[in-house]
Amino acid sequence: MPANKTPTVQGRLELKVKDFGPIVEARLDLRPLTVLVGPSNTGKSYLAILIYALHRFWTVETFGPFRLGRRARPMRLGDFEDAPQQAVDEAFEFAGRLTERAGKPSPTETRILPTSVAKVLSNSYDKRGGYLDGEIRRCFGLEELAALIRRGARGGADVAVRIHYRDNSAAGGQTFRIGARNAEFRTAVPADAGLPAGIAWNDLQSWLFEALTEPPSTHGGRRQRALRDLYRFELLEALATAIRPLVVGPLAEDAYYLPADRTGVMHAHNVVVSALIGSAAMAGVRPAARTPMLSGVLADFLEELIELGQRPGTRRRSPRDLGDGIEKTVLKGSIGVERSEAVGYPHFTYSPEGWKESLSLANTSSMVSELAPVVLYLRHKVEPGDTLIIEEPESHLHPAMQVQFTREIAALVQAGIRVVVTTHSEWVLEELANIVGRSTLSEPEGTALPASDVGVWLFEPKDRPRGSVVREVPLDESGLYPTGFHEVAAALHNDWADISSRSQETD
Amino acid sequence: MGPVESVRRKVDPACLVSRMRKASCAVSLKDAPRERLIVDFDKQRAPVGGEGRRCDYLFVANGAQDEAGWIAPLELKKGALRASEVVRQLRAGAEAAESLVPGGLQPAFRPVAACGSIHKLERAALREKRNRIAFRGRMEAVRLMTCGDRLTKVLGP
User: Fold this and answer.
1) Yes or no, beta carbons of A477 and B120 under 8 Å apart
2) What are phi and psi of A132, to 5 degrees?
3) For B80, which of A480, A493, A494 is closest by C-beta distance?
4) So what's the pLDDT on residue A10?
5) Which residue in A152, A292, B90, B106 has the most C-beta neighbors within 10 A?
6) CA-to-CA distance for B63 and A304, rounded, in angstroms?
7) Nearest to residue A421, comparing CAs of A17, A85, A40, A48?
């Protein structure tokens, strides 16, 4: 195994899906920009939600029904109970060697994780499989995971994530099989993996803090034993956090989902939340009403909006405001957040260029409502390395604005944000084709992305077995992505040609 | 006598083929009329005009009972289509058809372009009157189909 093996965190992540929702089979790379295209009801949103749920599993800690926050560590004390002593000793030795040095290792340095430790960490993640089950059900708004098995499938549904390293060997990953009655989860922490030393060093700092402030004694005593257990847990938990990029690459970073119906939510969110607050205030006075179910992606979207109201001043750490580009080139005005003094609930506004006063979002065009959450997410939440999932970025946008917005999406990718979009737009795809084509010029002017950073995946319906299959569509010789829109256009054209032909008979 | 028999008499049998395919672009004949013939204009003794301009194929089919049948010059292109180029080629095919089909017959005329893709602007250009194809006093617009698709989709009623 090469000593310099590092995870392609910005690189190739393969997702394989079989008999999942309407999808018969899909095998795709999640590139910095991933585009899902195809007819309605072929599973584009299913796949996008699955990607989001996987991100959530690896980044969001939950406790029962409560979300504790992003970037929390996804482990429990009991997850390491059966770790063999030899593995624990090797983990201590590994961490000791890494942390005894002065200063943080360079970004390119790696350390080989002992096989025994990798196995303990794999097992600990397998034990967490139930949380993935819950996260997927929550994101899809389903009570039973089995509802995701494709109708007509002989067995269950399969999902596999695999991270490919720069030397093209596939080592880390996660698989799960959804059966009619249960689900099986397997996590593969690559044995002898070269852990990026900088990441591990960061994650070991809390363990080091524990070690310095309360070094565990080797002697007996209940308190000392408890401390030793905690100390051991802290170490393995820190390593489990550190190895996430090796196992699932970019899935170990945050993801944000902008659902297709975001415009409606932007208009109606205050009504929904007011109703919920009203119900809560009347608890015990009025009979409890059944809370309507929202899918996780929609609920999370609402939650993110509410958070914006609580901390409207919070800005992302990146020095560049990526929302600015969309405001300048597409919206021709700025989006604002005002916090309600009474309940801390946000009020969103739009100020057209040159105007002193601002408009409530409810009084603006649907294009503004469509793009406002994108701007706000980019300004307050999304950071380089994170994934932004946008369903139908073309919604409510004139073709000229679709083209402009596509350029802005490409600019996000250039800034290090990973983007997944589902689309039905020929304009979006044509501009994307130009953005990729431009990268082949010796001195490209304007936004350009290399073909290796972009994946366009076509969902095609199939009769036997009934469902859709997914394949990559590269640029064709005419510099376009052949995604089936041509067939629709040809049918329309031929209808016109027939009308034209018959009109000669009536003349 | 239908158009099939008439054309068969005037064309060298070496130019007749049973399927249509050029450079990875094929046209499916599924459900196409059974009484048919296909002239391959790329064959050595094909009935092309003096200037050598030609389309790829001429599809000829008899209709059922009283129907006059179909005449369809076809141009196949794996990649993107250019309106001006395909119109020139299909016009050459239409001229060849004029000489092959007896004057008394008035089969449905369908100039067809099969391609991998076509840009919006090229499609718009095909709608222009100057880009229609003349046959027996009628001006027909080019029909479009995707490589691999069935010809019957564009033959029409």
Assistant:
1) no
2) -65, -40
3) A480
4) 44
5) B90
6) 65
7) A48
pLDDT digits (tens, 9 = 90+) for B8-33: 999 999 999 999 999 889 999 999 99
Residues 6+ positions from A17 with CB-CB distance below 8 Å? A23, A25, A26, A27, A47, A50, A157, A158, A159, A160, A470
CB pair distance less than 8 Å for B80 and A494 = no
Which residues make Cβ contacts (< 8 Å) with residue A502, sequence separation at least 6? none
Largest CA distance in chain A: 105
Mean pLDDT value of segment B57-73: 90
State the Cα–Cα distance between residues A390 and A297, nearest whole angstrom: 11
Rounded to an integer, what is the distance from CA A365 to the centroid of its chain? 28
Which three-class secondary structure state does DSSP give residue A454? strand
What are the residue ranges of helices labelled H in chain B?
A: 3-10, 83-100, 120-127, 152-155
DSSP secondary structure letter of residue A226 = H
Give the C-alpha distances (Å, rounded to integers) separating A355 from A15, A351, A447, B102: 47, 6, 30, 74
pLDDT reading at A289 higher than 70 = no
Smallest CA–CA distance from A487 into chain B, residue: B146
Asked if B123 and A489 come within 8 Å (Cβ–Cβ), the reply is yes
User: Touching check for A478 and chain B: CB below 8 Å?
Assistant: yes
**Residues with Cβ < 8 Å from A321, sequence gap 6 or more?**
A315, A378, A379
